[in-house]
Design a protein that fits this description.
Blueprint lengths: L5 E5 L10 E5 L4 H12 L11 H8 L5 H12 L3 H12 L1 H26 L9 H20 L4 H7 L1 E6 L6 H9 L17 E7 L2 E7 L9 H16 L2 E7 H8 L9 H4 L7 E6 L18 H8 L17 H7 L4 E3 L8 H15 L3 H4 L10 H24 L4 H6 L12 H21 L5 H8 L7
Parallel strand pairs: 3-5, 3-6, 6-7, 7-8
Antiparallel strand pairs: 1-2, 4-5
Helix pairs in contact: 3-4, 5-6, 5-18, 6-16, 16-18
Length: 466
């Protein structure tokens, strides 16, 4: 006897794979599982399952489509609430349903155009068929364009938002990383230049996956190793989706009052982006402590942020920043700057909560986390195929524009001589082919059209036996 367990029999097609399946439920001790597998391997025709083999059989038997398979894999790998919610919807078939609706619309339009080609001569086909097909394609194209204009929300949620922490030495960059990680992930010392290389961590911030990179302090240096670290830091900030500039609040106030050399800040100022840079003014506990005098007028974080931003681009007919009502500006823009003390914890929790909300708004994640919407595109191959479908639909509409001058009998007879337009019957055939290509491109997302070349790549990362 190996163990006292449970055996469950699932008769196909009412099983995960649509085949007859027997499940053994045993205790999870390593010795029990090893002995069970060893005993099963001695039975004729029994062998260990390949990675993802059960899911692959479910796909080949039509129980799942390719987007559901990918959703199941993402659900297994999900580390944050946002990732879990999106993966569950994909695994349940929400993405499949949306793509099937698009493909059905294209195929319906294709059927109408091919009816003109195959049966137009001598057959009575009602007027307006081509125009109806063209109108439906325009709606499908509008929907696809909406999916493509998602600012890569699905891909970012799946792979993680890349965030780079940068700023001058000893501002508190590594302290911020440790605060976000809730552990001593980075070495913190009062010695400038402690961080030389990039330290990356994957964290959950407000339910969103964020890949945080702590970088070397940006300053002028003759140290060869530190120079390499600064170069890597610059590249990390430029390639990140967003960045946080960590600055010492007392030093920023001294610069604003003209008490320090502003040229020393040129290294990190060059990396500030008006759209993608957030600010944390650290060491707020030192202001007014005697080491740093209190400012003559209170400065909120947003005012400090605006003083550090590069000049806004001016266009013909636009007004300068000085003409803007700063009260209106503050009330209509999200908070992108905070004051805190990472040493004492003052303002740190408020910063974290507000920053999480800023991330959700910046990447449009509020709807996703509230189940109000689900991104269709979660992988680069989805985007590639949808972009291909979009191009083919646009080509169809271009042919449709050239055929618009044809009277219905002329289209039906498909003779170039019956119309003054230079385009002839080939345009109708070519237009139909564009629709066929578009339908195939969307079919490749769900696996309805030959995708044998990517199946191994999809299933090889599954755990053994799933």
């Amino acid at each position: 006897m190996i163990d006292d367990g449970l055996l469950a029999y699932f008769k196909g097609p009412k099983s995960f794979t649509s085949e007859d399946v027997v499940e053994l439920h045993v205790h999870s001790g390593r010795a029990v599982i090893s002995a069970t597998l060893s005993a099963l391997s001695k039975l004729p025709t029994f062998r260990p399952a390949e990675p993802g083999e059960f899911t692959r059989r479910a796909y080949l038997n039509g129980r799942l489509d390719l987007t559901q398979v990918e959703g199941l894999k993402d659900l297994i790998d999900a580390e944050t609430e946002g990732q879990r919610r999106v993966a569950v919807r994909a695994a349940e078939g929400v993405t499949k349903q949306k793509l099937d609706e698009l493909r059905a619309g294209i195929i319906s339009s294709l059927a109408k155009v091919e009816a003109l080609i195959d049966f137009g001569e001598g057959e009575e086909i009602e007027e307006g068929v081509y125009e109806e097909a063209r109108s439906r394609v325009q709606k499908v194209l509008h929907t696809i364009q909406g999916y493509l204009n998602d600012h890569r929300r699905g891909e970012l949620l799946r792979s993680g938002i890349r965030l780079a922490i940068f700023g001058p030495p000893n501002a508190g960059k590594s302290s911020l990383l440790n605060f976000l990680a809730q552990r001593e992930a980075a070495i913190v010392t009062p010695i400038p230049g402690t961080t030389r290389d990039i330290l990356e961590l994957s964290l959950d911030i407000g339910g969103l996956p964020v890949v945080i990179a702590d970088t070397a302090g940006l300053r002028k240096t003759e140290d060869l190793v530190e120079k390499i670290g600064i170069e890597r830091a610059t590249n990390a900030v430029e390639s990140a989706d967003i960045s946080i500039c960590v600055l010492s609040l007392p030093e920023v106030m001294q610069q604003l009052q003209g008490d320090s050399d502003s040229t020393a800040s040129s290294h990190w100022r060059e990396l500030i982006s008006r759209e993608n840079t957030y600010f944390l003014f650290n060491k707020s506990d030192l202001v007014g402590s005697g080491l740093t005098p209190s400012p003559s007028a209170p400065l909120d974080a947003e005012t400090l942020r605006r003083s550090l931003l590069p000049p806004a681009p001016q266009f013909e007919g636009s007004i300068g920043n000085d003409s803007l009502d700063m009260d209106v500006l503050s009330s209509t823009t999200p908070t992108n700057a905070w004051k805190a003390s990472l040493a004492t914890g003052e303002g740190a929790e408020e910063f974290l909560q507000s920053f999480a909300e800023a991330l959700k708004k910046r990447f449009g994640m509020d709807d996703i986390l509230s189940d109000a919407a689900s991104p269709v595109i979660t992988r680069s191959r989805h985007r590639d195929h949808l972009q291909s479908a979009k191009r083919h639909l646009e080509m169809f509409l271009e042919y449709g524009a050239s055929l618009a001058c044809l009277s219905f009998p002329a289209v039906r007879k498909l003779t170039a001589a019956s119309c003054e337009c230079p385009e002839g019957p080939d345009d109708v055939v070519f237009a139909a082919e564009e629709l066929r290509y578009a339908a195939n491109a969307i079919g490749k997302v769900t696996g309805a059209i030959g995708v044998e070349d990517i199946l191994d790549a999809v299933f090889r990362d599954f755990c053994i036996g799933k």
